[in-house]
Sequence to fold (179 residues):
Amino acid sequence: MNQVIELDDEMLENEELDRPSFKHSRVQTNLTVLLGNEERFETFVELSLDIGNMDLSRFRIKAKDELVPDICVYAESPLLLDEDEEVDDDLLKVSQMPDLAIEILSPSQSVNFLVRKIKAFLALGVKSCWLVIPAIEVINVYSPNHKQTFDMNDSNIVDEIMDIHLPIQKIFSRRKAHI
Fold:
């Protein structure tokens, strides 16, 4: 029995425990569509970010060489290519940090782990980070020196760093079935 408890405690520190749920997936899809419709952004889901040799132990994160946000948003493409140029080989990791990293809480994750991960993203140069909590329909927006919380009582989520204004109801909304 002790081995199971120790394993569970260790797993809480590890990103491997991220098992997205239905609500997680819906919110991730809604945000990707909403932000992807903005021509000034390029969005990526589950993109591996190369953190190089940065020691993340001060954040109590065991990642060795990469972090994977639920959504990455770039104001400019992370690959500086000409318009007609394509990447011949797919990349396993991208070294350019996004302008915005979004983490969506899964039922199997702890808020504390994701806050530590957000602090690591900010230390790596990410300008803004969001922590989305689908179960209570709350979004925390973090920048290096500021945190703001939005919930369903707010009409919009406002990220001043990224100049983003999104209707919060569209982030948590369900599509209505057409009969």
The chain has four helices and ten strands. The domain at 2-78+90-172 is CATH 3.90.1570.10 (tt1808, chain A).
